[in-house]
Predict the structure of DUF2303 family protein.
Amino acid sequence: TGDEPRFVLRIVQLEAQEEAIANEFRDLLISKFDGESVETFIGNFKA
């Protein structure tokens, strides 16, 4: 309220943007680790 100007941003098609970011991240990981042996751990976590 008042006379102060406001600036509002809204992301259009947020889900599509999130998917594009995830794909870009996946491609980056693949390019960095291509041909490399990567040790992974899958297990349980209790808090």
Observations:
- The mean pLDDT is 88.
- The longest helix spans residues 14-33.
- The radius of gyration is 20 Å.
- The helical segments are 14-33.
